[in-house]
Design brief:
2 copies of one chain form a homodimer.
Chain A: E1 7-9, E2 12-14, E3 21-22, E4 37-38, H1 42-59, H2 64-80, H3 82-93, H4 97-122, E5 129-131, E6 136-142, E7 146-150, H5 165-172, E8 177-180, H6 186-202, E9 210-213, H7 218-226, E10 230-236, H8 239-251, E11 256-259, E12 265-268, H9 270-289, E13 301-305, H10 308-323, H11 332-347, E14 351-354, E15 369-374, H12 375-380, E16 393-399, H13 403-410, E17 415-421, H14 426-439, E18 443-448, E19 488-494, E20 516-518, E21 521-523
Parallel strand pairs in A: 5-20, 7-8, 7-10, 8-9, 10-11, 12-13, 12-17, 13-16, 15-16, 17-18
Antiparallel strand pairs in A: 1-2, 3-4, 5-6, 6-19, 14-15, 20-21
Helix pairs in contact in A: 1-7, 2-4, 2-6, 3-4, 3-6, 4-5, 7-8, 9-10, 13-14
Chain lengths: 527, 527
């Protein structure tokens, strides 16, 4: 009689012995969606961890070309099923089908997998280094155990635990994956896991290379992170959950790659506001409204100086946000969290310009919200006033003297992005020089005259930043091949015989085109 | 009347307000050495942290050529003073003056600084990536705050907090340094700090770029690690101290680069023991005896199979170690710790072959020690029997069936190195294939037919490994430029105007020869 969906474990779809289940909800209607999904028990997670460790041993010496074939096959299956996957994701998340899910996020997801495959084929990501005189050779290799990927609610495809960026990067480094789907979109995750499983079978990947479960208790999740078979984990989501997981991982020395909250400060210089305040207002409104503000790069803090032009800019921004109809958010819980954060910032000294309330009706919606505070007040209470409002909501910080721009920047926590609008004038550039000294150290991506949303999957991007925006400032979650290095161990071969070397480190260049560092120079020649 | 030595703070030598002091001891005689050194207070550490943060802002945009000049100047001053520095280090540590201190360790120290300078000059370590179509640019940059370097007792020069590998790597990435000298060799650290300070002055480095203190309470040390001005720390030393520091760093999301204990397992295959057991015994003895076994890569666990040839090899190893006269160790505390570890392993089931006692007399010396245990017993109690014995002491693990080689490998904790001796025969290679699947995942550097001691400062080496040998498997403490990446943040410039870009990311290649990833290819051309 059970209609509970199976989990993907040890190379097969199998019923989870757990009797606890959950269902998803349509955030547009508040109605329960069809299908029961298991809340996996500790025993299931232990079994997954063991299978993962077995797969890790096999993957360590697997031909990278097979991994590339798997990634490409996974991408192609997703591509073939893009319509049904996008429709399901829309039902579960309320995000627009087109172009958001069916085209932009879907294309990004497929592209990430294919870029990862390309990196595996070229092999350059391993940074092979050979010294023939000392017979020392080193490269990046798999970590040696399973990688736990934990997807967020806001990108059901591009960050999905079994198809997104962390998945692609960790598999590219030949690690087995234990994917934990987000409980708000289990069916979307199931469809993507079907693609991953079929691709793994057809390309002959070891059993246990891709495993997936939907949900577990927070305690069991922390236990899984501490298991010795788990070599690293990738998490995108709330700061609270992420830091609890980091704590568990720290206890066992397990690398934790986190992408946590970020308020993405924007600094609008007087010259820029004076010359194109209206355009800036429009671009910020568009950036805030995208995906109902539920993006880690959504502008949340806007700093500008007190002036008539600034007031006009604020009025335009207010108008754009007021005129737009609030869309459905990912969940009713998300509306509640946003409301709590807005009320918190008001309690801490911010004034409401517009919004600040949930919308009536069954759909999970929230009024577009703008708050305002003086820079002096912000500086007095800067820790509390950096509370992230995840949705269409931002805090304007108005400086009465330009020096306060720098002071505000100095008090910022680590963020994924920081944006400066300037008009290139001497005045703006002088202020820029002071500001950037502080801001640059506190953000992963610095933007000029643009908006922080719209992350390009590009080798030259960085989607990272100082703690607490992420768990480590030296890595990026987006951009191949750099993102792969998160899930790799640096290993050396000292006087090791040719027959025991990985192909990448043998004298003969394995592809003929792989760039390797041989005897003090980067070259494609044989060693 | 105070004869307490000053500390190096905020660009000057200054008296430390602390009234608490300590002195070093000559481990060869047990006598106190001249000179009192301050135990710095929390207030001093707070001031250093603030100065460090100020220096970090300036260093972030400092011309790398000046940093390279500083590193070279530091190296040259050490070179000029090598005799007096080596003599002082000998007095404080008991290590041989020549060739150990005056030549090998001194040359390595100077070479590391010069290699770091070379990396800074070429600039390739920053991994500049440019996408001209999207106008996205990224590179490694300084962390933005101070880096705390904490040197160990066993390499007073090459790992010294103000001249060693962590120092060179962190400065190369343009981070200001707060160096904590090891309290066993304060005068050596003082002499090296004088070189660093003079070099910093003569090359015009910002005040606060290099600061140094000698000692602090453990609690104040943990408080320093948690200060927001500290961006990372590098520590080489005991597992207990290192893990306490890592815990403090984890709380504030501060990257911790640790090099902790390692027992450096060696696996001697039957064929290898049969054909050259005598040579292997000699090489292991030499490796163990170097620096009185006080090296992180000293062989501490030797696995071999039960046979007549193995017994002959063990007898030879025993003989070599017995014939050699125990040298003075770094400290009397070190002798005590070694004795505790030896007794612990005996209590846990190991049998004594030779040694196991401190030597009589004033000098800090310990009998050369060999312990032995069956693989079966080892497997029953593998956690306890992996207790590091830091000195000339090793545990032999004797396997009665070859399968136990693999079982033993599977139970190993993370180590810096793992060594396999084989004779290339079919039998040894078949066993190698099984063994390496497990061993490879647990060690940073895999060695064939050699010994783990003797780390080459080379771009292709890895001096790292899985936890708990280090704090992160993706990095190395030795080998330029890779070691520099530990102390760098990955940062991106998105649509940023040319005038606000670092030289490495402008269209024009800043050196004409720097390899950059421009529009999907590594090239030295302009973007």
């Amino acid at each position: 009689m059970s209609t509970t969906h199976p989990i993907l474990i040890a190379g097969s779809w199998a019923e989870d012995p757990s009797s606890e289940t959950f269902s998803a909800t349509n955030p547009a209607t508040g109605e329960k969606l069809e299908g029961a999904y298991p809340v996996s028990s500790r025993q299931t997670l232990e079994r997954m961890a063991r299978c993962s460790a077995e797969a890790a041993s096999e993957l360590n010496t697997l031909d990278p070309q097979r991994v590339a074939a798997f990634l490409d096959s996974h991408a192609s299956l997703i591509d073939e099923r893009r319509k049904s996957i996008a429709e399901m994701a829309h039902l579960e998340t309320g995000l627009e089908i087109s172009p958001r899910l069916m085209e932009s996020e879907m294309d990004r997801t497929i592209d990430q997998l294919r870029q990862a495959a390309g990196c595996v084929r070229s092999g350059e990501w391993v940074s092979a280094r050979i010294d023939t005189d000392k017979n020392l050779r080193s490269m990046y290799e798999p970590l040696g155990g399973g990688v736990l990927t934990i997807g967020p609610n806001n990108f059901p495809l591009a960050y999905n635990a079994i198809a997104g960026g962390d998945f692609a990067a960790a598999i590219a480094a030949r690690n087995p994956i234990i994917a934990k789907g987000h409980p708000l979109h289990p069916a979307t995750t199931r469809l993507l896991a079907e693609c991953a499983h079929e691709a793994a079978k057809s390309t002959g990947m070891p059993d246990g290379t891709v495993q997936m479960f939907y949900h577990c208790s927070p305690e069991d999740g922390l236990t899984l992170i501490r298991m010795p078979e788990i070599s690293a984990f990738g998490f995108t989501g709330s700061q609270k959950a992420g830091l609890a997981m980091k704590k568990a991982a720290d206890e066992t020395g397990t690398p934790a790659y986190l992408e946590l909250s970020s308020i993405n400060p924007m600094f609008l210089m007087p010259g820029a506001v004076g010359t194109r305040g209206g355009d800036i207002a429009q671009s910020i409104a568009d950036s805030m409204l995208a995906a109902s503000g539920q993006q880690c790069t959504c502008p949340g803090l806007i700093v500008l100086s007190e002036s008539e032009e600034s007031e006009a800019m604020i009025a335009r921004l207010t108008q754009h946000l007021s005129e737009a109809e609030p869309h459905v958010m990912l969940s009713h819980d998300g509306v509640d969290s946003l409301h709590d954060a807005v009320l918190h910032n008001i309690e801490q000294g911010a004034e409401r310009i517009i919004g600040g309330n949930p919308m009536p009706g069954d759909a999970a919606r929230y009024e577009h919200t703008l708050l305002r505070v003086s820079a002096s007040r912000f500086l007095e209470n800067h820790q509390e006033l950096q509370t992230e409002m995840f949705g269409v909501a931002a805090l304007l910080v108005v400086c009465d003297i330009d020096d306060q721009f720098v002071e505000v920047a100095r008090k910022l926590e680590g963020n994924l992005t920081g944006t400066i609008h300037h008009d290139g004038s001497e005045q703006d550039r002088a202020l820029h020089a002071q500001l950037v000294r502080e801001l640059r150290l506190r953000v992963g991506r610095l933007i000029h005259n643009g908006v922080p949303t719209g992350v390009s999957v590009n080798a030259a991007t960085v989607h990272g930043g100082p703690y607490p925006a992420t768990g480590h400032p030296g890595f990026t979650a987006v951009g191949m091949p750099t993102a792969i290095h998160r899930f790799a161990a640096l290993r050396c071969y000292d006087q090791v015989d040719e027959w025991a070397l990985p192909p990448e480190l043998r004298d003969k260049n394995p592809t003929g085109t792989m760039l390797r560092y041989v005897d003090q120079e980067w070259t494609t020649r044989d060693a």
